[in-house]
Amino acid sequence: MMNIGVATELMFRLKQVGPRLCLDDFGVGNTSLVHLKQFPIDTVKVDGSFLRAVETSPTDAAIVSAIIGIGESLDLLVIGEGVETRGQARFLRDRGCHTMQGFLFSGPVDAEEAGRLLRAGALETNETLIT
């Protein structure tokens, strides 16, 4: 990210061969709205630091809602990361963010276990965890 021009060119080259690109930890660090405009991304991951207090902080709630809205407007997949509580999951779901990750669903797993969970369909959204 030290050279945005080089990074942007590299991302466009990658897109030509097929991978989907994700802007991780959106809203913190070096990520900004200009990246949504410049980069050929498919997915935005809402940084988990905004989700921690989303149920009690109107500011965090507004930020997460805005990121979800912007992502939808730009036809991007929006992922809520760091989901630890049912309330956080409900908040995201109620605002149209149906893709989530975090300890509410699973702790970290190795590649073998991830493959097993995927084959078993265990990583699909579990509405009983959210309702």
SSE topology sketch:
Blueprint: H1 4-17, E1 22-26, H2 33-38, E2 43-46, H3 48-51, H4 58-73, E3 77-81, H5 86-94, E4 99-101, H6 111-120, H7 127-130
Parallel strand pairs: 1-2, 2-3, 3-4
Q: How would you summarize this macromolecular structure in one to three sentences?
A:
The chain has one domain (21-130): TIM Barrel, CATH 3.20.20.
Task: Describe the protein's architecture and organization.
- By secondary structure, this protein is an alpha/beta fold.
- It has one domain (21-130): EAL domain (TIM Barrel, Alpha-Beta Barrel).
- Helix content is 48%, strand content 13%.
- It has helices at residues 4-17, 33-38, 48-51, 58-73, 86-94, 111-120, 127-130; strands spanning 22-26, 43-46, 77-81, 99-101.
- A four-stranded parallel beta sheet has the order 1-2-3-4.
- The longest helix is centred in the middle third of the chain and has 16 residues, at 58-73.
- The radius of gyration is 16 Å and the shape is globular.
